[in-house]
Fold this protein.
Amino acid sequence: MIRPLELLIGLRYTRAKRRNHFISFISATSMIGVVLGVWALITVMSIMNGFHKDLRDRILFVVSHVTVSDISGSLADWQGVSTLVAGNPEVQAQSPFILGQGMITKGSEVTGALIRGILPEQERQVSEVLDHIIEGNPDALRAGDFGIILGDTLARILGVKVGGKVTVVAPKGKVTPAGLLPRLKRFTVVGLFKINMHEYDSGIALIHIEDAARLLGMKNEVSGLRLKLNDVDLAPRVSYQIVQELPPNYRIRDWTQEHANFFRALEIEKRVVFIVLMLIIAVAAFNIVSTLVMIVTDKQPDVAILRTLGMSPGSVMKVFMVQGTVIGVVGTLLGAGLGVLTALNVRTIIPAIERFFNTELFPVSVYVITDFPAELRWLDVTWVVIISLILSFLATLYPAWRASRVQPADALRYD
């Protein structure tokens, strides 16, 4: 336990002007290193948190929280399954869908796409795709009119606009006296949506579920049920509950399973970045070691006098631990403050930098994100501060131990 005398002497050494200006420079450099390390770590972690959340939200615009389907690929008694699933208190809404691969053609342009048949009224309750219509009217998606809603990028690939005509070719053909003919139908583009994710904007087309049934040759069947939950993070638990209630021939998947590798890669990336940036703080902690070693050498006569006045080696050690810890504490708190301020105002800071240098740091045409959606998590801030303080404290142990080993007679021999 540090006594007031040791604390007082340690703080006085910290405030006092150094006879050796190089030591003062190294000490200031050590503190600045801690500030920059903590500042950068909190800022980058917040930006990555916001980036991950933004990507997850965009994925959930299209992907359902939980999907119920049959192992055969088609769900015949979907009304009965819907009634059974509705009994789960976590299920907020549900919607049937028909899913199939197909080709969409417009003149000489041909591209593959995922054809999804939906009920527009119920689809709005389980996803937000229809809330991101940038052209056209989603209400025009009516049964029998053969309307289609395309992703913005998909429409550009085909060179079609709202009101234009496209031909959808289904892979499952129909047998005729002339042989096997592909199923195809001409659709009118009634809307364009934009999620700002290339995978969805270039690969999904929405049609009415009855039109999809005719195109894909499905009579009273659907591909499955899309469920929306009250809490998206409870999807694995709700999936398990639904599995227990349904017969074994049903297949239940939640959004974490459909994109498990993607989100696992994001988490690994976040941990690697945390470790790499933590090395900045570790380097600053090593600077604290070198600073205190030089201070101990410079203060050997003072240490000798303190020892002759009766101060124990342990007390001498605590004096220099206080001095090194002050550098770490001040640097950590300053860095944490700057990091929090930067994370909370990053949406303002980045555009200001772009205007000042008259450049675009992350062009919209290249990157998925157009801004920096930072999300500050106080748990991350707490961990960064704690680890930084621990590293700063550990850096004081060896120099302080060396100070406690100074012999008064040897130190005063030539003074």
Remarks:
- Residues 4-57+262-412 form one domain.
